[in-house]
């Protein structure tokens, strides 16, 4: 394994198919047999950033995904390019959604939501 910089374009649509955005991505990190494996960072064309562990070109292991569009951030585990295992989403206002993800989904019965310190909320039932 070694560090190098690779720019992927539509000719190598490895990440384009999964992300469905733009046609230029920048990956910097460890490779094994010409595949992103180990620690690395992917900068998406829209400004989103994933920094974490990779296995055979898939997000796999512990990682952080920052979403430029809405300012949210996912910190947690990934398996086969999907959120899987313990993780939390931190929203721009400081609110958090925490739980154990399964194959990209967060089951209702296995999560908790915490309001950010500046969020005003009124109980509609009272």
- What is the CATH topology classification name? Histone H3 K4-specific methyltransferase SET7/9 N-terminal domain
Q: What is the H/E order? A: EHEEEEEEEE
Number of domains: 1
Rg, Cα atoms, Å: 17 Å
Number of strands: 9
Low-confidence sequence ranges: 1-22
Number of helices: 1
CATH architecture annotation:
Single Sheet
Largest sheet: 9 strands, antiparallel
Determine the mean pLDDT: 79
Query: What fraction of the residues are assigned to beta strands by DSSP?
Result: over 45%
Helical percent range?
under 10%
The secondary structure category is mainly beta
What separation lies between the terminal Cα atoms?
A: 59 Å
CATH level-4 homologous superfamily: Histone H3 K4-specific methyltransferase SET7/9 N-terminal domain
Gross morphology: elongated
